[in-house]
Amino acid sequence: MSPVLGLSLRSIANRRLSVALTVIAVALAVALLTGVERVRTDARAGFAQTISGTDLVVGARSGPVQLLLYSVFHLGNATNNVSWASIEHMATLPQVKWLVPIALGDSHRGHRVIGTRAAFFEHYRHGEGRALVFAQGRSFADAPEQVAGLFEVVIGAEVAVRHGYRIGQQIVLSHGSLGGEGGPRFADHADKPFTIVGILARSGTPVDRALLVSLEAIEAIHVDWHGGAPIPGVKIAPEHVRKFDLQPKSATAALVGLDSRTAVFRVQRQINTYPGEALTAILPGATLQELWGLVGVAEKALLAVSALVVAVGLAGMVAMVVASLGERRRELAILRALGASPGQVFALLAVESALLALAGIALGLALLYGAGALVSPWLAAEHGLQLSLGWPRAGEWRLLGAVLAASLIASLVPALRAYRYSLADGMSVRV
């Protein structure tokens, strides 16, 4: 160990309380800065991996970002539905390989209910083309003729874990996103309970927090409803719903896969100019980039605030070291009297500040991983954000390097001040 490093460590040990408080302040600032960066990158990665293999998402005429949010991420609500005639027209386009309609509007204890076809499990892809996997059970029956197969539901992994559901258990859906827990009692479809027939494995997508039923089931629970409320005096039992036409009348949106990606712009133009109905077809990847453009300003503002907190923490560290110089003038003078050069005194103060910054960075990373391990399950369950706890990424290393560089620059202030102290100045200090 070099003499300067040994003196620095012993000097820090003599001022352990003030040093500990300074290191904690720097650590909190570093944890905030790297935490913001990690949440930002994990949120982007999670959004980007939510859907893959889908060439177009089609909905009623609206903004592309709004369509992407409610159809794929289940955020917000659609302004209008797509007629079933338009859905059937799009499915017959020669370039369309598959089309999966989805119907939103119902919920269960705060979770979205998705009315769709069984083909959803076959064609929906996430991440690097990964398909949905059943942890238990099977898919719901697609357009079943028997009532017994009509009221079947497949639930996402988070729904199963959060409520302790199992195969064969019956649950009640609610009308609208306000139904269920905390919602109006009249909104429950209590007379037509669903049986859980499948539980999906965790996918890290909004499907984990959703329930999936057939489109005919959505029609069946609304046969005695009109205008978003039960028809007064009308009560149709589950065993009688098959007497009614359960052919879907509309859908909220549709996921479309094409035979060739080269045809995507041609099909998009065909759908956007469809004369039968005002429709919007979007490319999920391109719209996601548009979404990042919108939230990029907020991300930069959040990072700027975090950087300011780091600057405040480093300023506090410099202030502590400068304030301690008054008490250490005699100590520095003795070092000069023992033969230490002004350069060695300068190095002593600079090394002390660098050690404090390194300790703050190390403690900040420990706080980041500790807090991440604590809140990661809650973020996944409540917001679907999978927080990674791996090795720092390139962006985080750059931020940590910037913090270390800033701390080294800041250490020059007390080091230069100590450099200018003369031997006589230190020996004449009155205590």
Give me the oligomer status: single chain
Any low-confidence stretches, pLDDT <50, length ≥5? none
Rg (C-alpha, Å): 31 Å
What form results from the Cα inertia axes? elongated
Alpha-carbon distance between the termini?
33 Å
Task: Give the ordered list of helices and strands.
Answer: HHEHEHEEHEEEEHEEEEHEEEEHEHHHH
Helix count equals 12
Strand content range:
15-25%
Share of helical residues = 40-55%
How many β strands by DSSP? 17
Overall average residue pLDDT: 83
Query: Structural class, from helix and strand content?
Result: alpha+beta
Taking the sheet with the most strands, its summary is: 11 strands, mixed
Describe, in short, the structure shown:
Helices cover 50% and strands 16% of the residues.
Key phrases:
431 residues; alpha+beta; eleven-stranded mixed sheet; two-stranded antiparallel ribbon; 50% helix; 16% strand; elongated
Report what the structure shows.
The chain is α+β, with helices and mostly antiparallel strands. It has twelve helices and 17 strands. Strands 1, 3, 4, 7, 8, 9, 10, 11, 12, 16 and 17 form an eleven-stranded mixed sheet that branches. Strand 13 (about 225) and strand 14 form a beta hairpin.
Q: What is the strand and helix layout of this fold?
A:
Layout lengths: L2 H12 L1 H33 L7 E5 L3 H8 L10 E2 H8 L4 E13 L2 E6 L2 H5 L1 E2 L3 E2 L2 E4 L14 E4 L1 H7 L6 E2 L2 E2 L18 E7 L9 E5 H6 L4 E2 L2 E2 L19 E2 L1 E6 L5 H9 L6 E4 L1 H54 L4 H42 L10 H27 L2 H5 L4
Parallel strand pairs: 4-12, 8-11
Antiparallel strand pairs: 1-16, 1-17, 2-15, 3-4, 3-10, 3-16, 5-6, 7-11, 8-12, 9-11, 13-14
